[in-house]
Design goal:
Largest sheet: 6 strands, antiparallel, barrel
Distance between the termini: 44 Å
Radius of gyration: 14 Å
Strand order of the largest sheet: 1-2-3-6-5-4
Number of strands: 6
Structural class: mainly beta
Strand content: over 45%
Order of helices and strands: HEEEEEE
Number of domains: 1
CATH superfamily: predicted glycosyltransferase like domains
CATH architecture: Beta Barrel
Shape: globular
CATH topology: Thrombin, subunit H
Helix content: under 10%
Number of helices: 1
Length: about 100
Amino acid sequence: MRWRSNLNKKTQPRRDARTAVNGTLRILWEDSAGKERISQAQIVNASVWGAQLRLNEKIPVRSYVTCNDTKLGIRGRASVRYCNFVKGKYEIGLEFTSENGWREP
């Protein structure tokens, strides 16, 4: 049996390079009570398979969010991989379940 260290995961490059993006994205998600929520998020960076967003609300890890912004070219369903409180806002990392349509400008 081979053991894998979590440290190796951090040193491996991402599947796709992230690019800084300036814009807002409306996301749809479900809170812990099962109520649908809509939030406006600031996009920090994006790639074909992921994105980092900054918003005012905490979204639980492993929650799913949906977005569809034709102007930015980001759409699809994504899983929240992390949610950290940083400088008065929550930064969340998204991993899309399939390519999200985003292309580097």
